[in-house]
Amino acid sequence: MKVNIAGYNIDKSVLKKYGISATPETISAAYARISRSEKNIPELRQEALQEVKKARVSNQRIVFDMGHASIAEHAVFNIDIMGISRYLTEFIQKSRLASFTEKSQRYVKFDSDVVIPEEIVNNEKLHREYKVLVDELFELYRGLTIALKNNYTSSNDKMSITNSKKVKELANEDARYFIPLATKTQMGMTLNARSLEALLKRLASIDLIEAQQLYRQLIEQTSKIAPSLIRYIESDSYQREKLNINRELIGKYSSKLNNEKVLSTKIYPSNDNGEDYILAALLFEKYPQDFSDLLQNISLLSESDKKDIFEKLLSDMKFYHKAPQAFEMVDCVIQMSMSSCCFAQLKRHRIATIIRSPYNPQFGWVIPPSIETIRYDEQRLNHIFRKVNTLYVKLEDYHKGIGNYIITNAHRRNIIFKTNLRELYHFSRLRSDKHAQWEIRNISYEIDKQLKKLYPNACSKLMGKDRFKAVGEV
């Protein structure tokens, strides 16, 4: 056996300093030849490095002409994205096979630096109204930050906090609910060329100037480095038709739908006998028989026997362990309503299927309990939200989509979250933990509660990692 490190992340400034010209295409080209060459991998890499033009032709032939798109996944980019709106990050972070680290509104205090949609720059009235309301939202944000800090430090009960860093974090966490999605942020993104191609196509289909600017900059930056691995990046008829169908459906049925209805957290399980499916799958790993026969055998067991099996199966589980892969046999569709602030936490679970409704002020908003504790001016909050909702309508009438820039982190959106029980164990460990953001923690508690009713044996160890350490490791 022999292991070589073929490459690793290196800062572009280092390459420039030492005059090194490199492209990730050579790794892709070398690895593409592994399946059809007798040469060893280091030799293939050296050939690709010495003949970059040939490597690019090889990539284009193998990835696009022959359809082996996974070859493009060997080329990886680390991309800094700065000065984009929090709204646009939601489109970027739909990419599943990518990694993102974004500037946190929980740990960092933000100023009133926002994206002003270029669509309204030449409309003096809308432009002025937009800027005035943004300033008002940030004034509210700053005032709430100070009020919350004072409350956390001066409280006479057990909730009083003396750690200044923790006070700042807690104040930021809830005050951020009132700043708009237009707020500028920055993020680091790591993704392969195949995922980048999918992201570019998604951006191309978005009718926002900001999205088109990012689209062009990404193409300009990456095409210089790896022109052979990214081809299908234009919005096509398939993408456009899909959007048109959605609009037709909305137009046809919108009069029959109640936009003010807020969905509660509710679980729709894939089957009622999900625990039998898990046990049958566990058996299949050892005794590969017809799956229907295994299910039949499991169904003959008593409930007591099934409970004993699950107890033994999960008895040695630690908070850092994954549930057995057989737990993926059970899928759940979960409907939720949450603030945009909370959605920023949920969207990180990219292996799940997340279907999101469009933003709509009629869905209402979420007020953090801490705001109610400090008895902040409720009339002022309601007045500002009414102004946001009014401007949203004006912006949408002017150009579809730009109203979302003035939507705040507090505004609700409705979500369908579909995933399997194994992933929900991971979700619960993170989101039912006492350190999790309070809103997603409350939702996670409710999911845990409902799942334990549906699958009491399989979900007996479903809980946040803080409680698991206390209960599961006695």
Write up what this structure looks like.
With 474 residues, the chain is α+β, with helices and mostly antiparallel strands. It contains 19 helices and 7 strands. The protein has helices spanning 12-17, 25-32, 41-50, 52-65, 86-92, 124-154, 164-175, 193-204, 209-223, 237-253, 274-286, 291-299, 303-314, 340-346, 369-373, 378-398, 421-431, 438-454, 465-471, and strands spanning 76-85, 98-102, 184-192, 266-269, 331-339, 353-356, 412-420. A 4-stranded antiparallel β-sheet has the order 4-5-7-6. It has a 3-stranded antiparallel β-sheet with strand order 1-3-2. The longest helix is centred in the first third of the chain and has 31 residues, at 124-154.
Write a brief structural summary.
Helix content is 49%, strand content 11%. It is built from 19 helices and seven strands. The protein has helices at 12-17, 25-32, 41-50, 52-65, 86-92, 124-154, 164-175, 193-204, 209-223, 237-253, 274-286, 291-299, 303-314, 340-346, 369-373, 378-398, 421-431, 438-454, 465-471, and strands at residues 76-85, 98-102, 184-192, 266-269, 331-339, 353-356, 412-420.
